[in-house]
Amino acid sequence: MLRKALALALVLCATSWLVAEAGGGAYRLVDAEGVTHITDTPNDPRYRAMAGFSGTASGWLKVPQVARRGLAFAQEIRETAERYGVSPDLVEGVIRVESAFNPWAVSRKGAQGLMQLMPRTASSLGVQDSFNPRQNIEGGVRHLRYLLDRYPGNVGLALAAYNAGEGAVDSYGGIPPYPETQQYVKKVLERSGPTPANPNPVQAIYRYEDADGTLTFSNVPSVSRVKNVR
After folding, report:
1. Dihedral angle at the C-alpha atoms of 70, 75, 79, 84, nearest 10 degrees?
2. Can you give the C-alpha Rg of the chain in angstroms?
3. Active site residue ranges
4. CATH number of the domain where residue 138 is located
5. Pairwise CA distance, residues 24 & 223, whole Å
6. What is the pTM of this model?
7. How far is residue 204's CA from residue 230's CA, in Å, rounded to a whole number?
8. Same domain, 115 and 103
9. Cα-Cα-Cα-Cα dihedral sign, residues 184, 93, 162, 202
């Protein structure tokens, strides 16, 4: 019994190492003698995928898989971005943050595909199938181009509008004080690198409250009462 327990422990340790190192999931086979075989490259139809040991599900393989997915769409991204005069690196940054290059991604709010287009936005852009990578990239880049033109010279505001909507950006006169949007803009800019169209850093929004309870938001800090809401 002790030897069996030790053998099982070794199998579990080997499984953890294998899944961490493999480029995909792990597969398990118990042969006629009761010996357990684990591999990431099954060469026998008797191998079965090990539920719960997916590197993707555990997050161990997130970066490598994202890199591979990105390569799969690199040409489409570059060609579409260049056609609309948008930096391919910026488009790639948006896709990386929006969906991690998963063309089947669906957000809690219903945004779909690589560039996470909401159904209404997709329809207005002529996208018939948001899960079609080519159509999704086409629609997403067109929308991004529109926002870059709407907020000329300020990629941060364009990205904030892509995430939170133009109404929120216009209402606050800058990047809205939403933690999700603030982080979104920061992540996309970090992942897309510096671009000629992005000379301005992420803009901070400040908040202060008057004695009568009136809230005021500004991108210019006051001497005494302003509190940074970032």
Report:
1. 0
2. 24
3. 98
4. 1.10.530.10
5. 55
6. 0.58
7. 7
8. yes
9. positive
